[in-house]
From TrEMBL:
Coiled-coil spans in chain: 256-283
Protein family per UniProt: Belongs to the class-V pyridoxal-phosphate-dependent aminotransferase family. NifS/IscS subfamily.
GO molecular function: 2 iron, 2 sulfur cluster binding; cysteine desulfurase activity; metal ion binding
Protein's UniProt name: cysteine desulfurase
Keyword Transcription included in the entry's annotation: no
Organism: Thermolongibacillus altinsuensis
């Protein structure tokens, strides 16, 4: 199978699985235990991984805590901030095209009495600064805007948005879900003043079941206070209790190390593959429309609409040879709310596809996909 659904998950890098293997076999110590070698080895491996994640983000290692996934990180930040600072405000701002783990968490918080403003996006799926400015109120406590969209690939100008919030409303926390962008674009938190950032390993050639949350330290190096999602044994400085999944953490660390070392090379390859795919699609389908921003986008994520064809029928016809999608893996059997938010009607949504590339794909596979995709469309149109 040619795998073209890498926004859903990526294959594990062989170097990552190799690094993980010892911690699934002989190095099985609990890093929270003390003194003996197995525990100390595990603790050292966890801290090394933490340093690699911090290096990828250009932050300090003690600003990284490990979670099970980006969904947990998103839940942890949104619930933890508004619960801890509930006396300072009950208003949250997010956008209409966030990942489900943000939107559903906001819906839950609304049931608890919090008020949420869901910002409109423009035709490309970007949150404009003026839109955010007009939404902030005296009782706003948190803004959560994704760095890059998982369906259409559009990048928000997180640096601009975060700088405005921190300069003009310093009491408001700023969170971004950066799950889709790490390893594909540079993320430098020494320049981008977000307070919180969520990430997941399996979107950058790491294992499933492990993620992390960046929590910026305050003045004088003080840790930002936040109500934990999980209470228990005080692991991760009390932010996230539970025995650490050492093998997965090692995998995330290795994936982050590789992503940092190969960022430019990876980005260049994805852009070249994307250019080839877009060119072939345009040649074969003159009426094709590409969704999302044409330039300010995640490399290798292509969302397009071909009027008059049913995306489900095409995807099912190709399912044994090619993996592509209609959109987010977290919106099963639902029409894309992201495409609706950028102005597509119901019929256009049902004629839209997402193809997302990885570093293992070659040019022959892109050509193979385009040939078979066109043939499938023609057969179903007869």
């Amino acid at each position: 199978m040619i795998y073209l659904d890498n926004s859903a998950t990526t294959p594990i890098d062989p170097e990552v699985s190799k690094a993980m293997w010892p911690y699934l076999t002989e190095e099985y110590g609990n890093p929270s235990s003390k003194y003996y070698t197995l525990a100390e080895n595990a603790k050292k491996a966890v801290e090394e991984a933490r340093s690699h994640v911090a290096s990828l983000l250009s932050c300090q290692p003690d600003e990284i805590i490990f979670t099970s996934c980006a969904t947990e990180s998103n839940n942890f930040v949104l619930k933890g901030i508004v619960h801890y600072y509930k006396n300072k405000g009950k208003h949250i701002i997010t956008s209409k095209i966030e990942h489900k783990s943000i939107l559903e968490t906001c819906k839950f918080l609304e049931s608890e009495g919090y008020e949420v403003t869901y910002l409109d996006v423009d035709q490309y799926g970007q949150v404009q600064l003026e839109t955010l400015k007009n939404a902030i109120r005296e009782d706003t406590i948190l803004v959560s805007i994704m760095w890059g969209n998982n369906e259409i690939g559009t990048l928000n100008n997180i640096e601009e948005l975060a700088k405005y919030v921190k300069e003009h409303h310093p009491h408001v926390f700023f969170h971004t879900d950066a799950t889709q962008v790490l390893g594909k674009i540079e993320v430098d938190l020494s320049k981008v003043p977000v307070d919180f950032l969520s990430l997941s390993a399996h979107k950058m050639y790491g294992p499933k079941g492990i993620g992390a949350c960046f929590i910026r330290k305050r003045e004088l190096g003080l840790r930002t206070k936040i109500t934990p999602l999980l209470h228990g044994g005080n692991q991760e400085d009390g932010y996230r209790s539970g025995t650490l999944s050492v093998h997965n953490i090692v995998g995330l660390g290795k994936a982050a190390e590789i992503a940092k070392a190969n960022l430019k090379e990876h980005q260049t390859k994805l852009l070249e593959l994307e250019k080839q795919l877009v060119s072939a699609l345009k040649e074969n389908f003159p009426n094709i429309k590409f969704n999302g921003h044409p330039k300010q986008k995640i490399p290798g994520v292509i969302n397009f609409t071909i009027p008059g064809i049913n995306n489900e029928l095409i995807i099912r016809s190709l399912k044994d040879e090619f993996a592509i999608s209609t959109g987010s893996a977290c919106s099963i059997n639902e029409p894309s709310y992201v495409l609706s938010a950028i102005g597509l009607n119901v019929m256009e949504v049902k004629s839209s596809f997402r193809v997302s590339l990885n570093k293992y794909i070659d040019y022959n596979e892109i050509n193979n996909f385009c040939i078979n995709f066109k043939k499938t469309v023609e057969n179903l149109m007869i």
